[in-house]
Amino acid sequence: MATPVILVLDADPPPRLGRLTGRVRVRHADARTLAAQLPQADVLLVWDFTSDAVRDAWPGGGPRPGWVHTASAGVDRLLCPELAASSTVVTNARGVFELPIAEYVAGLVLAFAKDLPGTLALQREHRWRHRETRRLAGSRAVVVGAGPVGREIMRLLHGLGVRVALVGRTARRSIHGVEDLDRLAAGADWVISAAPLTEATRGMFDARFFGLLQPSAYFVNVGRGQLTVEDDLAEALRRRWIAGAALDVFQHEPLDPSSPLWDVPGLLVSPHMSGDTAGWRDRLGEQFVSMYERWATGESLPNVVDIQRGYVPSRDIPL
Amino acid sequence: MATPVILVLDADPPPRLGRLTGRVRVRHADARTLAAQLPQADVLLVWDFTSDAVRDAWPGGGPRPGWVHTASAGVDRLLCPELAASSTVVTNARGVFELPIAEYVAGLVLAFAKDLPGTLALQREHRWRHRETRRLAGSRAVVVGAGPVGREIMRLLHGLGVRVALVGRTARRSIHGVEDLDRLAAGADWVISAAPLTEATRGMFDARFFGLLQPSAYFVNVGRGQLTVEDDLAEALRRRWIAGAALDVFQHEPLDPSSPLWDVPGLLVSPHMSGDTAGWRDRLGEQFVSMYERWATGESLPNVVDIQRGYVPSRDIPL
Q1: Are residues A161 and A287 part of one domain?
Q2: Which residue ranges of chain B lie beneath pLDDT 70?
Q3: pTM recorded for the entire structure
Q4: Domain range spanning residue A204?
Q5: What values do phi and psi take at B125, rounded to 5?
Q6: Which one from B202, B272, B281, B283 is the annotated catalytic residue?
Q7: How far is the alpha carbon of B109 from chain A, nearest alpha carbon, in Å?
């Protein structure tokens, strides 16, 4: 076998691939050059996981890499019919983001329960105003998305005494099917979205859904921006259908400075950072290198995405 | 036995003592009338636990109630030498505040780890600025105060993967003695104060102590304001000796609008509310009523304060 070519769809800073020195040829592409370089690549590392370049370049002619790895949990940005129809294996970064995202969600939920945004606002005005806060233990959460991220969120919230229902595409063991979502959401204090973006989930959090929730409920989305109909959420908050919300992901990122979302009352806006704890890029690079070691020796790869479904099936992940 | 007299040092709203109707005579006092009424009371319920009235009134002449219950965890405001020398039993509200305070501390720690104050500040400016945050799991906390509050904080943080050292007055089993505090604090990411206010703990968090901490460390005080030398903490934050702090308790409460503490960079100020989840006053009233039932039938009381030490000894509380 010739020295394998790893093509990196680059982002800044680049991945640390020093451990592969002498064993591979690393080439770099950007959105403009990707199409021309794809036919020479054995492996494509989608390091810039915010780019649509793969979806754009893949349908062109010529050989295609047998393995595509994306340094992200979601694969929605790179899937296209031609890739889905191919024999290429697609893997994701499962294992890197779950715990940080779950901690972030726990932090948001506690911040809402204890009205930390209110405390910070009062502090700016030098106002001492005692309020009663919420007890988190015993409250109810619905986590939408039964993949590794959703499961880690469930684990952390459960450790804080929250009664958590996990909702996936289909009911299985201790996971509710999506047909239970409306009923569960109507009784929930916290609705957490950690679902993959697929045609089935796009826009699922809309006016109808927010209308089901309790006025005391909070909504948090750390999945993908397209899961939420942003105008509907803004309207639900303005009309006080729900108590508050936090979005870490948006239809268009970065969120434009002129977006009305920044100023919606009760909405906490963060810049798609829930999974990114210090050292996250190094962990992503190390994960790719160790997956490459398996690939090079013909071992089976972990984290293989079901391209039809658009996510890594988690039926084999123990709860 | 004549119908027992319960004297209530009142606060607004008053305690719900309806369940005792017909069995007791309830009288009400404020700071001005307490001294005159103490001799007729069998039981004193310190419902206004922010008052110094008991300490002021107790030394006067005449009979004294055999039981004083305070609707608070700390007893520092009511203890005086004459009460300490008496045979009066003092009890506190152990069991009501632990979990809410621990949740509040977990919320603060996660808010700091995920830079939630920074996110809210950037949102006000419509600025999308991705940052790397901290992973909470695997970080180190020192909890100062090995009573029920400190233990509950340890339990919740431990559930979030934090390595927690608990520091009490004296070493015992899995609790460190105060002689270990400097060493533990020097390696901690989070220093949490949940200690009682005694002559041994007053002012223990001072410039010398803050100087020991890592520049990345955060300090949180949910114990009593007098544990912290506030000017020293403000200076440590201004000089960036530590990364941030949160105070829920202060030397003087409510904090004056002109206090410089409101504007210290990196300091989160909250109005002594960490333990006060919705329904807390009702829980305090119910606790007193059920303790009264025991007292009236001659059973031993729970939550008895060691008046010499100034807190409920926790040697018998399982870790």
Answers
A1: no
A2: 1, 314-319
A3: 0.94
A4: 98-269
A5: -95, 5
A6: B272
A7: 8
